[in-house]
Amino acid sequence: MKILLVDDEIEILNMLKRHLELDGYEVHTCLDPREALDVMGRELINLVITDIRMPSMMGTELMRELKKINPLVNIIIMTGYSNMSYVVECLAQGAADYFTKPFTHMETLMEAIAQTSKKIERWQQAMKS
């Protein structure tokens, strides 16, 4: 499964990438949402994990643009802010889940990713039938 990580904090990207690669995922990282849109246009990405608040584009806008490129992409959002209005908006737009930063329970995030991976595998099997 291919995962795209989008966050303007390099430390978050590096930490998540290490964890995900250890679990066997192919991981792409982007510091800028516009770069993420380019990657999405070139690669078949199964899951995007993105921050909500970034300087060049809000996560809500990024979600809309990602869904235009691939309506079936699964998206998990991250936020370091206590304002839940953006989270609610993302969930209403079809985000699969959300997590707050800093990650105090990495295993919970990894479990959500594993569940999403299983769902994608079921879809892929169903399409082959």
Question: Could you explain how this protein is built, in words?
Answer:
With 129 residues, this protein is α/β, with parallel strands linked by helices. The protein has one domain (2-128): Response regulator (Rossmann fold), CATH 3.40.50.2300. The chain is 50% helix and 19% strand. The chain is globular.
Detail the topology: elements first, then pairings.
Blueprint: E1 2-6, H1 10-22, E2 26-30, H2 33-42, E3 47-51, H3 59-69, E4 74-79, H4 85-92, E5 97-100, H5 106-128
Parallel strand pairs: 1-2, 1-3, 3-4, 4-5
Q: In terms of structural class, how would the helical and strand content be classed? A: alpha/beta
Radius of gyration: 14 Å
Q: What count of helical segments does DSSP give? A: 5
Tell how many strands the DSSP assignment holds: 5
Question: What is the N-to-C succession of helices and strands?
Answer: EHEHEHEHEH
**What is the CATH topology descriptor?**
Rossmann fold
Tally of structural domains:
1
Strand content: 15-25%
Tell me the CATH architecture: 3-Layer(aba) Sandwich
Please identify which CATH superfamily we are dealing with. Response regulator
Roughly what is the average pLDDT, rounded to an integer? 90
Q: Strands of the largest sheet, in order across it?
A: 2-1-3-4-5
Largest β sheet strand count, sense and barrel closure: 5 strands, parallel
Low-confidence stretches: none
Shape: globular
Helix content, binned percent: 40-55%
Question: So what's the CATH class?
Answer: Alpha Beta
First CA to last CA: what distance? Answer: 20 Å
